[in-house]
Specification:
The protein is α+β, with helices and mostly antiparallel strands. The protein has 7 helices and 9 strands.
């Protein structure tokens, strides 16, 4: 069923969602090295990147950034959204390759972009479609979603270098915020006991930036009192300098139906009948396969992100 066709049951669901006091419902759910140091200067020497697997706490040679934005937005009127071509095909609603759904484009001009969640968000009322993106922003500012990206080997993108790998870790500690509510630059974070969320190795040059993947990327967050976790399978990442000493980019991958149900639980709040309706409708919009030739039983999604320079606390083991 193409996503552009909205069933009567979905229209009824939209009406009900408009009547939901959504945000209220959520309440019932139970330093390291200086990132601007010499590692960011490309000396022209071929630097061998340390094995990221051998340094789960800090590889110690590259710049470190804390994500201050992780954005999940619906596709725009031109069919542009964050993400990547995850299945190697530019598919349309008439094709079985993409499980019968049209692909999108990203801001880099890539075609065949798979981000089904960006299309589903457009079908939901604004107060509901904005809840998950708002939850991400709230979790970042409260310290429930601190993701630290460390460049490994080859210099920093922010200084014109080409890092050979990247490690993404889960940081700890309540962040310091500026007047705009965003993370302040150059502050220090600790690490969670099991910090490694992803190892992007190799990271290959792509213009002024770099690309990596596919690999598994973990997301672990605390929103108010709710723990939420999901894994992005077959994930890709693109990162580039923002021209102000930080980084920006996109990440996209596939989430299992089981993990999607966890997100739906957040969307549904305490309204069990609403959760049941969402759970029943979700498989209709599945656009991805977890293995070649497998069933269309998973969802593609994509995020854009921004990061600011950061440090790790020296007391971190």
């Amino acid at each position: 069923m193409p996503i552009t066709r909205m069933s009567a049951s979905w229209a009824s669901l939209r009406t009900r969602l408009r009547c939901l006091a959504f945000l209220a419902a959520l309440g019932c759910s139970d330093g390291g090295d200086d990132p601007s140091a010499d590692a960011g200067i490309d000396s022209g020497v071929d630097v061998v990147a340390p094995d990221p697997k051998s340094c789960p706490q800090r590889c110690g040679d590259g710049a470190l950034f804390a994500l201050d934005e992780l954005t999940l937005l619906p596709a725009d009127a031109l069919g542009v959204a964050a993400g990547f071509d995850l299945d190697g095909a530019v598919s349309a609603s008439s094709s079985a390759v993409g499980c019968g759904f049209d692909d999108l484009k990203n801001r880099y001009g890539d075609a065949g972009v798979d981000n089904q969640l960006a299309k589903i968000l457009k079908l939901l009322p604004s107060q509901v479609g904005a809840t998950l993106p708002g939850a991400l922003a709230t979790a970042i500012s409260a310290g429930g979603l601190t993701m630290l990206l460390e460049e490994v080997g080859g210099g920093s993108l922010a200084s014109g270098g080409h890092p050979k790998a990247m490690v993404i870790r889960k940081g700890s500690g309540k962040p310091l915020l500026g007047a705009d509510g965003k993370l302040l630059r150059s502050q220090s974070f600790g690490l969670e006991p099991d910090p490694v969320l992803a190892i992007v190795d190799p990271l290959t040059p792509d213009g002024a930036g770099a690309r990596g993947g596919p690999q598994l990327v973990k997301f672990r967050m605390l929103f108010i009192s709710t723990h939420l976790g999901f894994d992005l399978h077959n994930a890709r990442i693109r990162v580039e300098p923002d021209g102000k000493g930080g980084i920006r980019g996109e990440i996209g991958g596939i989430v299992t139906m089981e993990d999607l149900m966890g997100l739906i639980g957040l969307l549904g709040g305490c309204d069990q009948p609403l959760n049941d309706q969402l759970s029943e409708l979700a498989p209709v919009f599945a656009d991805s396969r977890l293995r070649a030739g497998g069933p269309c039983s998973a969802f593609s999604m994509g995020f854009s992100f921004h990061g600011v320079p950061a440090y790790l606390l020296e007391s971190t083991p």
